[in-house]
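Purpose: get a first structural picture of the assembly so the mutagenesis plan has something to point at.
Setup: two entries, given in the order below. No constraints added.
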Amino acid sequence: MAVTVKVVDRPAGLARQTFLPAIAEGLGVTFRHFIKNWFGNTIGRRNRTEIQTIEYPEQRKKYPPRNRGLHRLMKRANGEVRCVACMMCPTVCPAHCITIVPEDAPDARIEKRPAVFEIDELRCVVCGFCVEACPCDAIRMDTGMHAWPSYKRDGGLVDMPEMLSRAAESIAVQGGVGAFWREKVKQQPQTPVDGAVSPPGAPLGPVPSSEPGSRR
Amino acid sequence: MNVGYGTIWFEILTAAIKFIALAIGFGMGLASILTWMERRESAMMQDRLGPNRAFLRIPIVGWRWRAWGLIHFIADALKFMTKEDFVPPGANKLLFSLGPVLAIAPAVIVSAIIPFGPTLCLGELGTPVSQLGVCARPVAMQVAHLDAGILFYFAIASLSVYGLSVGGWASANKFATLGSLRAASQMMSYEVTMGMAILGAFLVYGTLEPGAIVDRQVDFWHWGIITQPVGFLLFFTAAIAETKRTPFDLPEGEPEIVGYFVEFSGLRFGMFYLAEFLEVVFSSALIVTVFLGGWRLPATIDGLLRDLPLWAYVVIGIGVWSVKVFVFCWFQLLIRWTLPRFRPDQLMQLGWQRLLPLSIANVVVTAFVMMFVH
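Result (structure tokens, whole complex):
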């Protein structure tokens, strides 16, 4: 099989061979971008520049509804935590980052509740298995927040009061509505799947400050 | 100990003050700011924000002063100083410590011959410049007055090859050694072109002393860039190759290839880094001196300033020089993101087969023109 050879000449002319006019044109492009971005950004308003950077954490991109972030615990109608310390989530967690110490709940129908519910967010692999495993819609990862940096290794531990600070009331029925849930859903007015009071992805709780060392 | 004018102590004292102000104050300061400016200016050219977050907390009001992120250069310096000092096992400890020193020392010493302002006349600080006669006690705004000043620059700049060769060898890392070989070959190739390119300027001005070169650039049409345009381009290109800036930065080749300072961390790397920016500052200063009129303003503006007292004229001269050096450093940063990087073989070919014949031709043509003009 013959190989065809195509000869391409080098650019002709002194101007094109030294590349000097091309360099000057390129310098013009970079210079124009620099002037537009520097004076549009530093001295003028941001919208006169071509800068695409989003300045986290003051500006946030919109996360999709299934985005998994920092954990939060959900509350019942009376303000109590929904978790019954059934230990499904620490069992299924592949990173072994959930620690639950159960205690007796005063209500006899809800037998247990967690005394200590701690998640080491540094170990968490953000897989969402705990959310899938929970039968009570007690734990969710829809906060849209990220684990915060800290100077110490145990800065990643989030405990129950902190997770409850992001809590919302869940309208899920404890134990489920039974095998014929599809009929019941058709009878009810359509609510969003998550059912939380606030829309998923919106930051809940205080916006984290950029102070070094502060627990947010 | 007589510190009067004319004694050796006066010379030493003034030289020390000028050196500290120029090399440490201006050079180190501008080189440190260039570490921030490079990142921010690169970002501005690439349609993104650069570092703009580091702040200083103002004590009483508790404000956070961001200053467009200028504080980052202090943060970088603190970071370099607090990192772990790691010497790789098997490395030659003496040479490993010596490498950064050999890199930064020539970069600082070359500033000695750069004239950064008009000559100060002791005892006549208040007289207007137009009424100055011959000065009885001049103090040149130049650390060392050497008749072969530009040769001194090239001699000391050649010593910076030792820094990177020693550093690459002492790292006990084959990739670092190869990187230092690349860098050494590149630097040696472009030193020849630099010398040849400035030979044209030497023919035009008749002197190698930088203060005299600036004195002879009396108006804009005598500036080096007008009398020696080809020489300026050649010297500028060779200077960028000497300082190993893009497009000639394959020796350090940050995103692509392992460079010669791969095993250095913390303050040792900080010294290599700062040495590179110091070379940028002082090679810009040399180009400003020889080709862009030094501290001089164009003749019409200069005429307006002739009625000012001498101290104001000197201060303005120093300010003009600083602005010119700063703008030229900024221009070198602009070139960084305009041009793609050269391969080492393209680099060698450019240095030896294109730039060197051009610079020799420049010298020959300049010699002919000078012969016919005079």
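Residues 183 and 202 of chain A are 31 Å apart (CA to CA).
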